[in-house]
Design goal:
The structure holds two protein chains of two kinds. Chain A has helices at about 15-30, 35-50, 105-120, 120-130, 135-145; strands at about 5-10, 55, 60, 75-85, 95-100. Chain A is α/β, with parallel strands linked by helices. In chain B, the strands form two sheets. A four-stranded parallel sheet of chain B has the order 3-2-4-5. In chain B, strands 1-6 form a two-stranded antiparallel ribbon. Chain B has helices at about 25-40, 65-70, 85-100; strands at about 5, 10-20, 45-50, 60-65, 75-80, 105. Classes of the chains: A alpha/beta, B alpha/beta. At the A-B interface, helix 2 and helix 3 of A face helix 1 and helix 2 of B.
């Protein structure tokens, strides 16, 4: 579900929309989503409010399967400068984790693993201070092994 | 050993809510399941979409603070949770709300 090429760090984004577009581009690049999924993710934030900022500094952009998801995947980006999503409790955001789900069931396992990783503050701290995409990939791999 | 005594004679029905219903609410659900387990509270935790909240018949709804206002009538207890991956926040707020409702007391 997560491949090293789906992780990018030191990205520059003008604002939250730009950040969501950049991570959406990765999902399209790796064949996990159609281009329209990107606009769907942006629309979801606009309609539902910045609820995707699930904890301090971390946003989980996503949209519905029918909106252009092609296969289950995860993408992660770290921004050079954090952006505001409009969430008074958890802004500003410097880490975006986007995912595509082709159906409810198949994605539940991946998401629940993501939850278990993010529930441990140490993992978040390590991701935040990582200096390369492979480092982040290893952190997640190790965290997954320890919860399985 | 839990410091609290759960007083209902059936499991607590908890619903975690987000806008889309597939991502964030599932994460909140998992953190909540961990939280209630640590509190020794028997609970059935499910996740769902904002629009289905009222029909779900839950005892407790957990959602982001910015959704709490519109969920006010959807359950007896509606709690705003700032971080979906912080079980301490969930435990704290659940304990307070359940104590206020008379569903939980200090052991």
């Amino acid at each position: 579900m997560l491949k090293p090429e789906a992780i990018k760090i030191d990205l520059e984004a003008l604002d939250w929309k730009d950040a969501v577009r950049k991570i959406g581009d990765i999902l399209v690049e790796i064949g996990a989503a159609e281009p329209r999924y990107i606009e769907a993710m942006i629309k979801t934030v606009q309609e539902m409010g910045p609820y995707i900022v699930i904890t301090k500094g971390i946003a989980l952009p996503h949209a519905r399967p029918a909106e252009g998801a092609k296969k289950n995947a995860l993408a992660i980006i770290k921004l050079k400068k954090p952006v505001e999503f409009g969430n008074p409790d958890n802004d500003p955001v410097d880490i975006l984790i986007a995912f595509t789900a082709i159906d409810n069931k198949s994605h539940t396992k991946a998401l629940s693993q993501l939850a278990k990783i993010l529930m441990v503050q140490e993992n978040i701290d390590k991701i935040r201070s990582a200096s390369s995409p492979t480092e982040i990939y290893d952190i997640i791999k190790k965290a997954l092994e320890s919860i399985n | 050993m839990s410091k609290y005594r759960y007083k209902l004679d059936r499991p607590l029905k908890i619903l975690t809510i987000c806008g889309v219903g597939m991502g964030s609410s599932l994460i909140l659900r998992m953190t909540t399941e961990t939280a209630v387990k640590e509190l020794d509270i028997p609970a059935k935790v499910e996740h769902g979409v904002l629009t289905e909240a009222k029909a779900a018949g839950a005892d407790v709804i957990l959602a982001q603070p910015l959704h709490v206002e519109e969920l006010k009538d959807a359950a007896p207890i509606v709690i705003g949770i700032k971080s979906f991956v912080n079980k301490e926040e969930i435990k704290e707020k659940l304990i307070e709300a359940l104590k206020n409702a008379g569903w939980l007391e200090e052991a």
